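Subject: Sanity check before I submit

Could someone independently write out the structure tokens for this chain? I want to compare against mine line by line before I put it in a report. The sequence has 147 residues.
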Amino acid sequence: MRSVALCVALFAIFAGVASAGKRDWTGSAACGACHPKQLAAWQTTRHAITRDRFPGRPEARCLGCHGTGEAPAGPAIAVEVGCEACHGAGAAYAEDDLMRNGPVARSLGLADLSTPKLRAAMCMQCHSRPTRGRPFDPTTPVHPVKP
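---
Independent answer below. Compare away.
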């Protein structure tokens, strides 16, 4: 199985990973199948209840920050700031043997959020100004997991 993962990774590196298509997004529930503590922690955040902020279907320009998917350039798969909004479309790297190999998973689209600087850069793509008058602290954990 590792040779398959290596072949997939090499193909992705040499072919170049294009933007994700709708079938490339797995959704937060799929991520939670292997990461239940992270999913439970995320479900307590405002990112998980983004849909509640809109009375109807939000405009594509809003979904760039308030959704998961390709908005505003393409379709959003969910009106929530789900796992893949920050970690990248997961279908290519979600399999257990791929996810356990960091370099391979990152080559297949898993966003590298391993340092505070990288996490802050990701967050600041949407949180570049105060949210509802509150300052944003990019060092605050998004989904803290209690031991």
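---
OP: Matches mine. For the report I'm noting this point. Residues 21-112 form one domain.
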